[in-house]
Amino acid sequence: MFVDQVKVYVKAGDGGNGSVAFRREIYVPMGGPAGGDGGNGGDIIFEVDEGLNTLMDFRYQRHFKANRGENGMGKGMHGKNAEPLVLAVPPGTTVKDVNTEEVLADLVEHKQRAVIAKGGRGGRGNIRFATARNPAPEIAENGEPGVERDIQIELKLIADVGLVGFPSVGKSTLLSVVSAARPKIADYHFTTLSPNLGVVDTQDQRSFVLADLPGLIEGAHEGVGLGHQFLRHVERTRVILHVLDMAGTEGRDPYDDFITINKELEQYDPTILERPQIIAANKMDLPEAEEQLAFFKEQLEEDYPIFPISTVTREGIRDLLFAVANKLDEIPKNYKPIEEKEDRVVYRYEKQAKAFKITRDPDGAFVLSGEQIEKLLKMTDLTRDESIQRFSRQLRGMGVDEALRERGAEDGDTVRLLDFEFEFME
């Protein structure tokens, strides 16, 4: 089964907790702190495997979670970092964050890797908190939570040439004639239910990858028919091979078909029509095809290369393949960078999100929320008084106390943060 779009949940590993420990060797008075740091949590990494051509592995498993780092130990021993969770994806995979729609990765080359979710940093042990004022601290951090997100994985086939055209114009037949691919061929619409790839070898020892995409119809960019599911696969092609039924066997006009399909491509992505387009005038072995071809050339406003062919008699196919190969030789592989992120090239200042915000619950309690303040709580060991005092100082430094006063908080009021409740004290 061909699967080219799927949503999954990924959770990187949390960092290990730091340790509170002290040296207790004989003859070493006041040995001091000896708690080690926790290990880092495992990343979620996507790696390209050129042997894959579908996202089938993600169809039945939709949740992926990396291991957390090992906790720190006494005698200054740090916890072990967790191994990353590496998931194989086919070439041409694009990963987006569902909530922000940010493109996280665009993977096209074999063995190319991208970190989709970063593992949490290990918490610091009490060795890290020793100072001249407090040489024996009982403070240690919990591990930082790993990144978790819902992502959308899309596969955009990497093919040099994309076959486009109405259903039943002969795209699948052409692919079967020029390559070793064996797509299903039948005399009814939408025989092709998923894209098919074939490697074409020309007689002068050149080769390219040809993709047969399910037939497009009017309204495809809005979701009509089957073609809309696979329009994304046209994005990576360097040349478009437009197949037309020049004999009009189904009563349609070839010029109208040509205009309709190009309009659908333009409405899906205007840059697609910037690519070279070659017209394959198919079914030239049938009556009236020559007359229709002459009329089609008269109607055509732009100068497209047109090659009369017949997939039945194989007439004209050799010249068509040479023309496609010649055009590909003129176009570099990186002709159209897909989903290129501007912020990889140009630095853009982004205002940092507020560290916290304050709301009220119906019972009158003040509720603190925000990514930064929630992470701070999760990394605080609430079982130790010194850690709680440090957390209180951090909140004061962030301006939480002042903000609560401005919202009308008074001595004894309840303040909630995640699952914990605190009492506001002046």
TrEMBL record:
Monomer. CDD domains: Obg (cd01898). GTP binds at residues 165-172, 190-194, 212-215, 282-285, 310-312. This is GTPase Obg. SUPFAM superfamilies: Obg GTP-binding protein C-terminal domain, Obg GTP-binding protein N-terminal domain, P-loop containing nucleoside triphosphate hydrolases. Its EC number is 3.6.5.-. InterPro entries: G_OBG (IPR031167), GTP-bd (IPR006073), GTP-bd_Obg/CgtA (IPR014100), GTP-bd_prot_GTP1/OBG_C_sf (IPR036346), GTP1-OBG_CS (IPR006074), GTP1_OBG_dom (IPR006169), GTP1_OBG_dom_sf (IPR036726), OBG_GTPase (IPR045086). An essential GTPase which binds GTP, GDP and possibly (p)ppGpp with moderate affinity, with high nucleotide exchange rates and a fairly low GTP hydrolysis rate. Plays a role in control of the cell cycle, stress response, ribosome biogenesis and in those bacteria that undergo differentiation, in morphogenesis control. Residues 159-329 form the OBG-type G domain. Its main location: cytoplasm. Mg(2+) binds at S172, T192. The gene is obgE. It comes from Gracilibacillus xinjiangensis.
